[in-house]
């Protein structure tokens, strides 16, 4: 595998396409039933044509309110004595504070999308939106046979 040329590692310019509007102002107000509004820049309204035919979309956003980034291991997670690498978690403390959430699309009105389950703070910049599921040559690609590590599985409440 070739190494990435040094000049490509300096920076990448990404322009937000909109903002998230929600009641989420801190980590205590998150939930999969949370309703949020995604306000896409008006000049991109036509780019949303057809999105309302999907039940779910991926929202890619910049976690602009994260203070601590660039951890190699999660500071609070271990598998026995072994620390869990940050890329094996969905924690917001990754090297690049980019968020990705699969959400239910409730409706679209012009440049505004109402969604359920978006775990992002109010006024978070949206970088991109992609429909779910993925497809190739007209065939939907849905992963049904997946695995997760044992440490992720939690005991059911009594």
Structure description:
The structure is a single chain. By secondary structure, this protein is mostly beta strands. The chain has one domain (13-152): Elongation Factor Tu (Ef-tu), domain 3. It is 0% helix and 37% strand. It has no helices and ten strands. It has strands at 18-21, 35-40, 56-62, 73-79, 82-85, 98-109, 112-116, 125-132, 134-136, 139-141. The strands form three sheets. Strands 1-2-7-6-3-8 form a six-stranded antiparallel beta barrel. Strand 6 (98-109) and strand 7 form a beta hairpin. The model has no long low-confidence stretch (mean pLDDT 83).
Any chance you could write out the topology, listing elements then pairs?
Blueprint: E1 18-21, E2 35-40, E3 56-62, E4 73-79, E5 82-85, E6 98-109, E7 112-116, E8 125-132, E9 134-136, E10 139-141
Antiparallel strand pairs: 1-2, 1-8, 2-7, 3-6, 3-8, 4-5, 6-7, 9-10
Overview in brief:
It contains no helices and ten strands. With 158 residues, the protein is mostly beta strands. The protein has a single domain, classed as YaeB-like (Elongation Factor Tu (Ef-tu), domain 3), CATH 2.40.30.70.
Element order: H for helix, E for strand: EEEEEEEEEE
Strand order of the largest sheet: 1-2-7-6-3-8
CATH topology: Elongation Factor Tu (Ef-tu), domain 3
Query: How does CATH name the architecture?
Result: Beta Barrel
CATH fourth-tier homologous superfamily: YaeB-like
Supply Rg.
18 Å
Tally of distinct domains: 1
| Main sheet attributes: strand count, strand direction, barrel closure | 6 strands, antiparallel, barrel
Shape: globular
User: Mean pLDDT, rounded to whole units?
Assistant: 83
**Structural class estimated from helices and strands:** mainly beta
> Which stretches of 5+ consecutive residues score pLDDT under 50?
none
Distinct helical segment count = 0
Helix content: under 10%
Q: What is the CA–CA distance across the termini?
A: 49 Å
Strand content: 35-45%
Oligomer class: single chain
CATH class: Mainly Beta
Secondary structure tally: strands: 10
